[in-house]
Amino acid sequence: MDISFSAKNIAHSATLAMNELIASIRESGEKVYHMGFGESPFPVHHLIRKALCDNSWRHSYLATQGILPLREQVSMFYKKMFNLDYPPEQIVIGPGSKPLMFAALTALDGSIFLPAPSWVSYQHMGHFLSREVHHIITRSKNSYRLEPDALVGAIQENAPDSKQQKVLVMNYPCNPTGHSYDGHQLVEIADIARENNVIVLSDEIYALTHFRDQEHHSIAEFYPEGTLITGGLSKDRSLGGYRLGTLLIPPDETPLLRAILAVGSEIWSCVSAPIQYAGIEAYRIDTGLVEYIRDCATVHEVVTRYVYQRIRTMDVTCPYPQGAFYLFPDWNDRRMALKKIGITTSKELANYLLENYHVASLPGSEFGMPPEDLCLRLATVDYDGELALDTYLEDMSSALEHPETFVSAVAPSVLGACDQLDLFAAHISSEE
Ligand SMILES: Cc1ncc(COP(=O)(O)O)c(C=O)c1O
Question: Dihedral, CA atoms, 386, 391, 396, 399, nearest 10 degrees?
Fold first, then answer.
């Protein structure tokens, strides 16, 4: 059969494809250290499980925008956690934040600007919609943050007419790098966006996975009239398979809301009824959920920063992680030695690590980086989340003070991956 123009250039999501590949390698009995897929591993909070069971009898279609009690709960949650005011009328519930982003990008006119590196799916959504996609190169030494000058340069080069609307997708804490932005950095980007008619689609799905020394700010604090925020349950509540996401839109944007709901109504109709009712429980702020979210984030912090420290001892540059569960080491300084063993692209680097050291990762090129830029994304979640959380709760100070002991007890595969990377780094050094 002939494949349509818009589907021709779309590949299976690199992250999901990697997960499926690793599952099949493991089924064949081979050992693999899985740093290729980022799924938060903690158990479902017992109150959410109970709410889902209690509501399993619900079987009717619901409104596309989502049920009012859930939108009210989300509204209160955003007020309490981020001091942001979004009344229920400005909130849309969808089957994950990914389809909501797609609906928002469908509804919003304008070419799409993405910092590189950025999450795998944005660029494909843009291509799917036949939109111009412009990557804005960022610098490893600035932790791959979007810099104001680079944003201005990209706008002037590609869409200088300030009457012409543009869309900038931002994500922080960031997948793939783990970096975030402080208030001052966001103000600078907000000012440029306002001056240049840029709408910001702010992917804040990792907002509550920020580490203890980092406070989460949303660009919506500084640019409320031009920001859409996506979020959901997939990361901080480990509920990726529940498929529940949220989209917050600015006030007085009725045509935009209508367009987004039209897309939703034609594609997913509504989020499943039991999940929406369980979602009310998942957004409560007075039942221990907030503490559970914080504890899970701290376990991510201990494991991710442990891997970061190990990587730094390998003499590899890597942004200091401030949230989420990813690292983005940059091997460019070792380019000469890598070339000697046949590695000149990030894809070759990732393949070499998988074939020779059994470490699965994703090449930076999947995140919009030039193919020859030797960076990789490592996910730090290949462990039993229940064991890790229980062990952390039993003795928090020990986990925080002795991360190596904690990681070796609860995340042996993560420790093993670090040891394998050490061997690889030693091999490269011997080529230098
Ligand atoms: C940056 C980023 N945004 C969005 C998503 C998708 O989240 P959801 O499960 O809400 O569709 C992911 C999932 O991997 C992600 O890493």
Answer: -100
